[in-house]
Design brief:
The complex is a heterodimer of chains A (763) and B (159).
Chain A (H helix, E strand, L loop, with lengths): L2 E4 L17 H6 L14 E7 L5 E7 L1 H5 L3 E6 L11 E3 L2 E3 L1 H8 L4 E2 L5 E7 L2 H9 L2 E6 L6 H5 L22 E9 L2 H6 L3 E9 L11 E6 L5 E5 L4 H12 L6 E5 L15 H11 L3 E4 L2 H7 L6 E9 L5 E13 L6 H7 L8 E10 L13 H19 L3 H8 L18 H9 L2 H4 L7 E10 L4 E9 L5 E5 L7 H13 L6 E5 L16 H28 L6 E4 L2 E4 L7 E2 H6 L9 E8 L5 E11 L6 E11 L6 H20 L30 E6 L21 H13 L5 E2 L3 H11 L10
Parallel strand pairs in A: 1-29, 2-15, 11-30, 13-14, 17-18, 21-22, 28-29
Antiparallel strand pairs in A: 2-8, 3-7, 3-9, 4-8, 5-6, 10-18, 11-16, 12-13, 12-15, 16-17, 19-27, 20-21, 20-26, 23-24, 24-25, 27-28
Chain B lengths: L1 E8 L2 E8 L4 H8 L18 E4 L2 E4 L12 E3 L12 H9 L8 H14 L5 H7 L11 H15 L4
Parallel strand pairs in B: 1-5
Antiparallel strand pairs in B: 1-2, 3-4, 3-5
Helix pairs in contact in B: 2-5
The chains are: A alpha+beta (763), B alpha+beta (159).
Chain lengths: 763, 159
């Protein structure tokens, strides 16, 4: 069995068990309804015309011929959208600028990446809409594309947005949207006291979340000005807010109904088709459905940043790290907003380093606007920092896990960008790997090596609402506004069941629309089981309080005299037999009516997550192909509500991290055209590519949550690229500094290292 | 121009008037309202739209119904025998092999084809059989474990 749980002496009845997931049956029978499965009578089909150019001025758009095609009902362009306010508004994990958001939905005077939406059509059939796109004529003036952060930051770089300014460059046009600096201590002095200093430079490619379900939206609009959007999203309230901002309509006029979601990983926290479908519905008065093709998903949704990173780190003779400098430049895509600030705050977060200087640059380039991807920003940066730490450990002759334990952050260690940590479990994840059968096993064979690396993610709190309704038969429903992307329906149901003395199967979790529940922030930041779970816990306690009042009414005693133990209500000195929730539920109508518990939170007490991963590889010296032989990940879950789904998150994140490490990358030609916009060429791991990913759930309860929950969705993606790089080094003696570590790159590195000329033309 | 086509889907016969270029995926989802079959790429790259044709896995996005007259098509909606779930369905639900669930219908049908020709596959055989179906959520371990569990239950039904 590939599974272990450490320190799970919880004393809970439901929490920590593995009931069948409430959505399991729907998903194995085909009954689960995803966004593209919705259809309405009279529905039109919408399609988007996208720029074939990476950087071009739009001089004219002529669509009269398209409008005349029989069956075409509307054509819209950027002129149909109001100009949004040019200021940053925090929304979910990332902030949003309404102007940039609107310009990404439909280009205005410039197309800023290949795939940028320029016009959209609604027609009575999908194929008619596609035909209509061919009849739209666009006059472009081609501009030189700016594809990398290095090109974009160069002095003579072509400028994407002539209005873009940053605080440091005054009124000078720039592609650098923002420079953030984090500083603690004196790095110069720190390096002076170091005995060993390692300085390395890294580059990582743009990668996509790779959810299998393409983006979709179905919008309706009534003559009363009320709109409904059905779509697969991680954030129905974000879709509502963003669509309202893009279209200039009141937030309250839109209802968003979240469908089942076929993967998101951060990529479905923003809008692409939703405002367009609604705009077309407003124009035509008919429901409009839009679904992206796979090429559109890759070219025009939000992948995560490629990056250029420099790390300098020094340590004393005993291995204690004395200073670290990190320089990070991240591709934001066509509009500002890469996760580089998060990268800056995560890159050294697992360690107690007295002297730190981190510079982070958010840089616009002619690529799709990036979106969140599982621990946004952290993986690129960890690839760099965790490789340098490995090299320091090696130079000092220290085991890489001992190096991490020696320098690891503990309770009281100040976070590089914030206050001291409360109780955290970083050291415990290192110890778990150190004591694992995997790390204790011998790895034999030529060209094989073992690497470890660690990762940090903040986790998020933010706003959530929940209702817990007691049914007439004593079962319950738990209603939230958090779309379930990783098992949160199960965890919410289990939390309510724990409080109410029910079985998990007796609580039905419901994810409802934006009109039916209080504002709930995005499913992201590993926040749902933490924050929505907190709201569910409080709503269940609220329901329990009301139930006790009802029992008190029956027994003519005070509510505080009623106790709930082992599934039964008692009252001190009451001669009547104790009653179960099922018996009490029958008496609710005569004791005051239905019981419905409610709670809303803006959750504080977030507990950060750490993971440490150990990977064995074998490198093929002839081809450069890296095979993953074995992989174990240890992660601090705080409290694992449903351990099977915690393992699922750990395995899924690790699998994505391995794909990022070995194969995945956006490949562009010199004109900025993506060359691999399909799943054969954008190579995600398939079943034979991966080992059985072993998991160790570490439970160091989060003191900021009533059940100790931290959140488990993201951090496991962070360590794998560095762990693979460190394993490759142990296997063949070569340090890889670029992602992905695909066969051509690995082969080139091996040949260069051995003094042979590179046989490939790979640059 | 439309063609009159007779299709057998999930043990039912349908008579349909279809454009010759309409894919099986489109016909299943739009004409027969069997939306359990998913579209992921419509290029034969992801495996989400896998269905069985006479027991063998096919990508419905690359298959034209006009070629399928007289053949038996099985989609996820037809995996269960009446009200009784298939062992694969139970095992996928129990072990968390279905996370977001989008690849699940295709994955289960590929696994069903495997178990019908090889009731006790080893891990390598399972990996081979599922190599054309991409799952982005699970890292595949729980899927492989679910196929193994279903194989055990089919081969050794409880007494």
């Amino acid at each position: 069995m590939a599974t272990n749980t450490i320190d799970s002496s919880s004393g809970y009845r439901v929490i920590g068990t593995r009931p069948i997931r409430p959505d399991g049956v729907d998903k194995v029978t085909g009954r689960a309804k995803y966004g593209a499965d919705y259809a309405l009578p009279g529905m039109l089909h919408g399609k988007v015309l996208r720029s074939p150019h990476a950087h071009a001025r739009i001089k004219a758009i002529r669509f009269e011929r398209a409008l005349k095609l029989p069956g075409v009902k509307a054509v819209v362009t950027g002129k149909d959208l109001p100009e949004g306010e040019n200021k940053s508004v925090p929304l979910g994990e990332m902030s949003v600028n309404p102007r940039y958001l609107g310009h990404n939905i439909l280009a205005r005077d410039k197309a800023l990446y290949q795939g940028h939406a320029v016009a959209a059509v609604a027609a009575v059939g999908l194929h008619i809409a596609e035909q209509a796109l061919e009849l739209i004529e666009i006059e472009y003036e081609l501009l030189p594309p700016v594809m990398t952060v290095d090109e974009a930051m160069a002095n003579s770089a072509p400028i994407l947005d002539p209005e873009l300014r940053n605080e440091e460059q005054g009124d000078e046009p720039t592609n650098i949207a923002k420079h953030t600096q984090l500083k603690r201590g004196e790095t110069e002095a720190g390096f002076k006291s170091a005995q060993t200093v390692v300085e390395r430079e890294f580059r990582t490619a743009m990668v996509h979340q790779g959810y299998i379900e393409p983006h979709n939206a179905l919008a309706t609009y009534g003559s009363d000005g009320r709109a409904t959007i059905y779509c697969s999203t991680q954030g129905p309230f974000e879709v509502r807010g963003m669509s309202a901002a893009v279209l200039g309509v009141p937030v309250g006029s839109i209802k968003v109904v979240p469908a089942e979601i076929g993967g998101g990983f951060g990529g479905k926290t923003t809008v692409y088709l939703e405002p367009l479908a609604l705009l077309l519905a407003m124009k035509t008065g008919r429901p409009v459905k839009m679904v992206m093709t796979r090429a559109e998903v890759l070219r025009a949704s939000g992948p995560t940043s490629g990056s250029h990173i420099k790390v300098k780190m020094g340590c004393a003779r005993d291995g204690k790290i004395t200073a670290a400098c990190v320089w990070l430049a991240y591709e934001a895509g066509a509009f500002p907003g890469s996760p580089v600030a998060a990268a800056a705050m995560t890159v050294l977060a697992p360690y107690a380093i007295p002297n730190v200087l981190i510079d982070a640059y958010d840089v616009v380039v002619n690529r799709p606007k990036t979106a969140a991807y599982r621990a946004p920003g952290a993986t690129n940066a960890a690839f760099a920092a965790e490789t340098v730490i490995d090299e320091l450990a090696e130079r000092c002759g220290i085991d890489p896990l001992e190096m991490r334990i020696l320098n690891g952050a503990r309770e009281g260690t100040p976070h590089p960008a914030g206050p001291p940590y409360r109780r955290i479990g970083f050291i415990e994840t290192c110890e778990a790997i150190k004591n694992s059968p995997h790390y204790r096993s011998e790895l034999n064979g030529a060209n094989r090596g073992r690497g470890v690396a660690s990762g940090f993610w903040f986790n998020a709190g933010m706003q959530s609402a929940a209702m817990v309704n007691i049914h007439a038969d004593g079962t319950a429903s738990v209603v939230t506004g958090s779309p379930d992307i990783g098992g949160s329906r199960a965890s919410c149901a289990m939390i309510a069941a724990e409080v109410l003395g029910l079985e998990a199967e007796e609580v039905r979790p419901v994810v409802t629309d934006t009109d039916a529940i209080g504002h709930t922030d995005v499913t992201g930041g590993s926040r749902v089981t933490f924050a929505t779970g907190m709201a569910v816990f409080q709503a269940a306690e609220d329901a329990m309080r009301q139930l006790k009042e009802r029992a008190a009414k029956l027994w003519e005693c005070k509510p505080e005299e009623v106790e709930f133990r082992a599934g039964k209500f008692f009252a001190k000195g009451n001669p009547d037999a104790p009653i179960t929730i099922k018996e009490l539920a029958k008496r609710l109508p005569r004791t005051g009516g239905p019981v419905s518990g409610r709670a809303t939170v803006n959750a504080r007490g977030v507990g950060p997550a750490f993971a440490t991963t150990c990977i064995d590889v074998e490198v093929d010296l002839d081809t450069g192909k890296v095979e993953i032989l074995r992989c174990t990940v240890a992660q601090d879950a705080g409290r694992a509500i449903h351990p099977a789904y915690v393992e699922g998150q750990m395995q899924g994140g690790t699998a994505q991290g391995i794909g990022w490490a070995l194969n995945e990358e956006y490949v562009y030609d010199a004109q900025g055209r993506m060359l691999n916009a399909g799943l054969l060429d954008y190579r995600m791991p398939t079943c034979p590519d991966l080992p059985m990913i072993e998991t160790i759930i570490v439970e160091v309860p989060n003191p900021g949550h009533p059940l100790g929950v931290r959140g488990v969705g993201e951090v496991s993606i962070v360590p794998p690229p560095a762990a693979v790089a460190n394993a490759i080094y142990r296997a063949v003696g070569v340090r890889l500094t670029e992602l992905p570590m695909s066969p051509p790159r690995v082969l080139k590195a091996i040949l260069t290292h051995s003094g042979q000329p590179s046989a490939t033309a790979w640059s | 121009m439309k063609h009159l086509i007779t299709l057998r889907v999930n043990r039912q016969t349908y008579e349909l008037a279809l454009a010759a270029n309409k894919t099986l995926l489109e016909v299943l989802r739009e004409d027969l309202e069997l939306s359990g079959t998913k579209h992921g790429c419509e290029l034969g790259e992801c495996g989400a739209c896998t269905v069985l044709i006479d027991g063998n896995p096919f990508l419905s996005c690359l298959t034209l119904p006009i070629e399928l007259q007289g053949k038996e098509i099985t989609t996820v909606e037809g995996v269960a025998a009446d009200a009784e779930p298939h062992a694969l369905q139970t095992a996928f639900a129990e072990l968390g092999a279905s996370q977001c669930g989008y690849c699940t219908p295709g994955m289960m049908l590929a696994a069903k084809a495997l178990l019908e020709r090889n009731p006790r596959p080893n891990r390598e055989e399972i990996k081979d059989a599922l190599a054309g179906n991409i799952c982005r959520c699970t890292g595949y371990l729980k899927i492989i474990e679910a196929v193994e569990l279903a194989a055990r239950r089919i081969s050794e039904p409880p007494a």
